[in-house]
Amino acid sequence: MVEHKVELTVTKYRHTAMKYNGYIYHYNQDLLNGLSAWRCSKWSHRELKCRMRIHADSDHNVPDEFLAVQHDHPPEYEKNYEIVRNKFI
Fold first, then answer.
1. Which InterPro entries does this UniProt record tie to the protein (predicted)?
2. In angstroms, what CA-CA distances link 30 with 34, 49, 58, 82?
3. Backbone angles phi, psi at 60, to 5 degrees
4. Is the pLDDT of residue 19 over 80?
5. Sequence-separated (6 or more) residues with CB below 8 Å from residue 41
6. 1, pLDDT greater than 70
7. What count of other Cβ atoms lies within 10 Å of the Cβ of residue 2?
8. 39-60 confidence digits (pLDDT tens)
9. Which one of 19, 55, 58, 77 is separated from 29 by 20 to 30 angstroms, measured CA to CA?
10. 38: exposed, middle or buried (Cβ count in 10 Å: 0-12, 13-18, 19+)
11. How many CB atoms lie within 10 A of CB 41?
12. CB 84 within 8 A of CB 9
């Protein structure tokens, strides 16, 4: 795996979110293969409807195949979420 920065954050509604490559993902579900699915924060956005999802293991390691995922919008570097933990994978 390539080293990249993953930050777990908390939204204003106290839900867990993950910052990855400048995008914000919200927890979606646990998968049968032991990974968890995270949806782009713009998944249900009124205008964008970005359908990107990434998978992560229990240590929040994101497989390399998600390094170059294509979103329908620019990264959200300016989002001000409370940082819970920084982790280098």
1. Znf_FLYWCH (IPR007588)
2. 7, 22, 10, 24
3. 65, 30
4. yes
5. 17, 23, 24, 25, 26, 76, 79
6. no
7. 8
8. 888 887 677 788 888 888 888 8
9. 77
10. buried
11. 22
12. yes
Chain centroid to CA 5: 11
Fold of 5-88: N-terminal domain of TfIIb (2.20.25)
Measured between alpha carbons, how far is 44 from 54 in angstroms, rounded to an integer?
16
Please state, in angstroms and rounded to a whole number, the distance separating the CA atoms of residues 89 and 75: 20
Amino acid at 51: R
Whether the Cβ atoms of residue 48 and residue 42 lie closer than 8 Å to each other = yes
* Phi and psi at residue 57, to the nearest 5°: -85, -175
Query: How far is Cα 16 from Cα 32, in angstroms, rounded to an integer?
Result: 21
